[in-house]
Amino acid sequence: MILTIAAAVFVFGLLVLVHEFGHFITAKMTGMRVDEFAIGFGPKLISRKHGETVYSLRAIPLGGFNDIAGMDPQNNTAGERGFCAKPVLSRMVVILAGATFNFILPIILFFMIYATLGAAKPADEPIIGGIIQDMPAEEAGLKEGDKILSVDGQTVTTWKDFTDKIKNVDAGQDVLLKYQRGSESYEVVLSPKFNEQEKRVLVGVQSSIVYEEKNLLESFSLAVDHTKEITVYMIQAIVRLFEEPEQTENLAGPIGIVQMSGQVAERGFIPLLNFAALLSINLGIINLLPVPVLDGGHFVNLCIEAVRGKPLGSKAVAYTQRVGIALLLMLMLFATKNDLVRVFLK
User: Considering the chain, what is the average pLDDT of its residues?
Assistant: First the structure.
């Protein structure tokens, strides 16, 4: 439990810090007055004023905010240094900076991993590197580190040998696996399951990983490419939510993310950094959706202002924000329902 809480605080804190720092630094660079930069919500634990800005750490470490003067045009106390008084382009930069920094963070994290450990790739040896929950391998008692020796009496020498033999098995057909654990050999019978997404049968195991050393330039290039690939995949996943409503069962809320943080942290700090990078990309994409109250919604309003030559009226902004808040609350409630089902009913 302590590890789960610590991992969740680390992940949420890092993501919020980076996101809010993006808004903060661009607001400062464009001459806006920032009254407070806070990590967390609720009562202040630590507060220090430097220049005109108060920097604070608050009791609930699951969020954060920048108090940029003049966000509300009717309550602008900063004059020409207020957000609302700055040119549209400056405001666009500040609004988009949070999500932009959420895409920069994974590049930095992946670069650190590649530069220190190298690039991960599947090992040639048929050694199990991970077990997927609620799949035949877990049910059969296979564990990480087990070495596959044969499939239905056919010798396995590489991981590709193993996967090639499994993919030719029909779903539900019994397969005899011989494997080595430590110095002992064992046999087990399991039945592969057909996976609709992968369009093939799976037993629920992952290969072990080896690392290939990379120089700094290669590490940076790989980090950028990896971030791009994940971003495209996540956008496609969001599109599938609208095309295939049943996919919404995979949505996770704060409870699910906290639980996953703990599970990943048990595997080590590097997997936790990878998890933080994935969540950061996810946060960046979600924040750019054109939903009122999200950064993407604010950006749309600024685009409309640029075309019209004047901002939307206060009534129109208030109405769209209420709609946005309602949509986010419904999504949050649905995701929380999924979390509770996973935790207590599965």
Answer: 87
